[in-house]
Amino acid sequence: MADHHDDAFDPAATSAAFRGFAATARQTAPLYAHLSLAVARDPKLAALLAAAPSTQRNPVLLFAAIHALLLRGDDHPLGRHYATLPDRGAPGRNTAVRDFTDFLATRRDDLAEIVADRSMQTNEVGRSAVLLPPVAATAEREGPVGLLDLGTSAGLNLLMDRWSHHWSTRAGEVVLAGEPGVQVTCDVTGPAWLPAEPPPVAWRLGIDRSPAHVDDPDDVAWLLACVWPDELERFERLRAAVEVAREDPPPVRRGDVVTDLVEVVAEVPDDLHPVATTSWVLNYLPVARQDTFVDLLDQVGRERDHTLVALESPHRTPGLPWPPGVAGLDVTVLATFRWRGGGRAETTTATAHPHGWWLDTTRQRRI
Fold first, then answer.
1. Domain boundaries, the chain
2. Which of 29, 110, 173, 246 has a CA 20 to 30 Å removed from the CA of 65?
3. DSSP states of 52-93 as a string?
4. Closest CA to 313 of 330, 289, 336
5. What is the pLDDT of residues 52-77, one digit of tens each?
6. What is the DSSP track for 283-299?
7. Burial class of 183 by CB neighbour count within 10 A (0 to 12, 13 to 18, 19+)
8. Residue 45 in 3-state DSSP?
9. How many CB atoms are located within 10 Å of the residue 215 CB?
10. 54, 5 Cβ separation under 8 angstroms
């Protein structure tokens, strides 16, 4: 989501952002959490984020830029702390901040160039574990679907019906067989309808302001750089998913999730039910554009039944029509918004891990 570079760098806001990210990442990404606390104490370390569009100035973009340089082969001592690098991944943290600080100082120009030109591309295949059930439930009621992934990155979640899914529930494990090399797991709390077979996706399309392409080595390298290095399983699964997708690349193209919305929904064949998905995309829109996004969905709904499956933070997307029970919560919520018979109908919600590791239909579990 491109934006103007006209907002001054705000050390206090930067410190708060990195402190918040440290709290979020401490269990699954301890390296990033450790480094984030260093930035929170000295936000000048992240001053090169001023080169980024204002909507992209966040911890994960800085860390992805660093990861990108290391994955390209930069032989800096910081790399020894990264499990995603060959023969690296030293667990010690006592030198990590020192190496991090030196890397920022000595690679400043290269990092500034990356954050100015790139946006986050978290094409997390694990999110399909929480997106697929409501898509499949919609297909069971409405028939075959036309799947639209908005903010699609490389379109890997357009292939949700091809991945192998393993849901762990209180009653036992539910397995949906698919590509054996791409295993997606999810811990489910509370009652949940889980599909016995993949949804009938008869047509699919992804749009993104800066789409990545699975047959472009530079794009794939950036996708990998956006994965947190402590999460080696995610890193390897993404690699495997890209290899599968290269055999028959998902259809993705450049487009805007707001201005092109009505047009792309109209492209879904008339005999299919349109289902749009978003996952941590709408938070990059200003609230006014979130409002417009919903207005356009209402406009489409007056002419045609359709469904939106959104994995977003209500706190960051107040323009969405969240129900009172979750509106304003600073957590990740999975919601299904339905437009039927000319109006917006029932909405169902659950809380979820932002990368799909767990789903809680009781809405008690948070991150």
1. 11-117, 125-360
2. 246
3. S-GGG-SHHHHHHHHHHHHHTT---GGGGG-TTSTT------
4. 330
5. 887 788 899 999 999 999 999 999 99
6. GGS-HHHHHHHHHHHHH
7. middle
8. helix
9. 11
10. yes
Residue with tokens 């495997």: 240
Q: What is the pTM of this model?
A: 0.88
Handedness of CA 71, 73, 76, 82 (dihedral sign): positive
- With cut-offs at 50, 70 and 90, classify the pLDDT of residue 356: very high
Q: Tokens for 193?
A: 């309808």
For 180, half-sphere exposure in the C-beta direction (CA atoms, 13 angstrom radius) is 0
> Exposed (0-12), middle (13-18) or buried (19+): which is 87, by Cβ within 10 Å?
exposed
**Tell me: the pLDDT tens digits for 144-173?**
999 999 999 999 999 999 999 999 999 999
- State the Cα–Cα distance between residues 154 and 246, nearest whole angstrom: 11
Tokens describing residue 32: 């990033």
